[in-house]
Amino acid sequence: MDFKLTPKQEMIRKITREFAEEYIAPIAEESDQNSQLDPRVMEEMKRMGYFGTCIPQEFDGAGMDTLSFSIVTEEIGRIDASWSITTGVHASVCAFPIYRFGTDEQKQEFLPPLARGDRLGAFVLTEANAGSDAGGVETNAYLDGDEWVLNGSKIFATNGGLCKTLLCVTKTGQKGRRPELTIFIIDTDTPGYSVGVKEDKLGCRASNTSELVFQDVRVPTENVLGGIGQGFRLGMKILEYGRIQMAAQTVGLGQAAIEASIKYANERVQFGKPIGQFQGIQWKIADMGVEVECARLLTYKASWLCDNGLDYGLVGSMAKLKATEAAMQATHDAVQIHGAYGLMKAYAVERYFRDAKMAEIYEGTSEIQRMVIAQQLLRGGWQL
Amino acid sequence: MKIFVCIKQVPGITEVRVNPKTNTLIREGIPSIMNPMDKNGIQLALDIKEKHGGEIIALSMGPPQAEEVLREALSMGADKAYLLSDSAFAGADTLATSHTLSLAIKKILSEGKEEEIYLVICGNEAIDGDTAQVGPELAEELGIPQITYVRKIEMSGEKITVERVFRPEEIVIIETSLPALVSLLREINVPKFPTMAGIVDAYEKKEVNYLDSKILNADKAKIGLTGSQTEVWKIFIPERKGEHIKLSGTIDEMNRELCQRLKEDKIF
Asked: pLDDT tens digits for B139-170?
């Protein structure tokens, strides 16, 4: 067993850390308050290839393994969760599924602009009456000649207002009591597509979360991903992969909370000594360290399983659950350690705390992760 | 055209700790980085290559762990990298270092099919030793023109025209033909971060070639500790005395205030 990262992975971490600290950190607070992603950061991230990390170089991506991708997401998440969710969602649940399940024609057409970041991607499932219950999707499509005609609306779509290519989970029929779901690749320039309300959120405020509306959006049959009626199966697989990145970004967020707490605990003097010398603070910092490191190990293991062609679904869910709850606890304690300063916008831990709460809910709530994990365990799907 | 860029791995902080018994740097716990000016060197080479073509060759002398800075140079876009690594090179002062570097450059040039013009780029100095000597000495070893303190460079055909910072706010424009060596200042450009694909390629498609004293056919008397003409007696951090005061205003105002303070402190 070798826990050592390769020199390549170490370099990816180093460069991404330097980039995130230089470009994103100085404007993270401002972006959070304005609810806007900074265009200068966007341009540099495109140039550096952060939108095509896990896409092969033949499609203009970087050609990275999943563990390297997770390290990138962790390092960006360590500075600003709004950016890590933007790139993480784009690459893991839009670009990568097209690479994994798409036809050669779909890859040629859609992947290069996604990998270059020229077109931002999204994956949309959640609706007013469907989210945790994917089977409740009401956005529907019917076949008219060689085109599918989509109608309905999606809510809480990450990257929704900015994306140019999206994967849309759509109901295309009924099989007994279960709806037949299909995923369409949709170009947002298609007539009938529009962006509704842009949400004003608790955390990850700079990332774009929007309502999307489909009114007689005509999609050619060539844009079906993975076959008609494959939407549920594919959707679950897509989210399985995405969870690793959601875990990775909250490992970064938890790490940020620990680093801020350590710095503050060593500097802040009360009762004649730095507060880090009081046991009450020490125990919090110890627990934060343990929890975040557990989450990191699970995240790296899920990435490693994926890179080695092994089943990563269960460990990926464990990683997402552990990482988001570890980040929630770590950011909660970080605010507590900072006292009243931690409540102020001037201190980053205030933002970390809000961003962590988001992570426990998006891309499969903690409850859904526990359901997924329990189902697999009860089926005996986990053996040593 | 071959563009050689000399890079050095240095400790990542400017105020290092010194072991008082051995007078050597304490390197534990201090990350190693590419000397910042050398990053500008790689960027300059990339800019020249983009306009005029050429092959970028990064060179470094150091222990095997210096491979990391060469991989970073490859990630930024250098085409080839050579690490001059041998226990016989250890303890080299600037003279022995520049001699060894010159052997490597001559060897790489001799391997080419035809005679090529070349440019050698060095950072003006490294942030650890701050000698600013390796560049000029390397030019002497190679027998080529050298221009130091370069803040701008233009190339046309086989000629380069550079702006050299002679004194603060005094620029000298110099033209020379290639081959030549330039040692540059940080203001020459802003190095770009490597791309993700660049990093992947640096590890999966490119190589760091190791050169030792045998391959370079080096004369033992001219390399490493034995080839060094200088000896370090002591390394220490200067004691900070008194306060740093910054004056502001017009030159006259600042002059007046300075004189006043010097009188008060009984220096005048």
From this structure: 999 999 999 999 999 999 899 999 999 887 88
Residue A350 appears among annotated catalytic residues: no
Alpha-carbon distance A299 to A249, whole Å?
10
CATH topology of domain B2-222: Rossmann fold (3.40.50)
Question: What is the set of domains in chain A, with CATH numbers?
Answer: 7-120 (1.10.540.10), 122-228 (2.40.110.10), 233-378 (1.20.140.10)
Strands B180-184 and B208-211: unpaired
Q: How far is A155 from A129, CA to CA, in rounded Å?
A: 10
Contacts of B198 in chain A (CB under 8 A): 49
Say yes or no: B35 contacts chain A, CB-CB below 8 A: no
d(CA A72, CA B197): 13
What pLDDT, in 10s, does the model give residues A256-273? 999 999 999 999 999 999
Q: Which residues in chain B touch residue A8, judged by CB atoms under 8 angstroms apart?
A: 199-200, 202-204
> How many other C-beta atoms are found inside a 10 Å radius of the C-beta of residue B268?
9
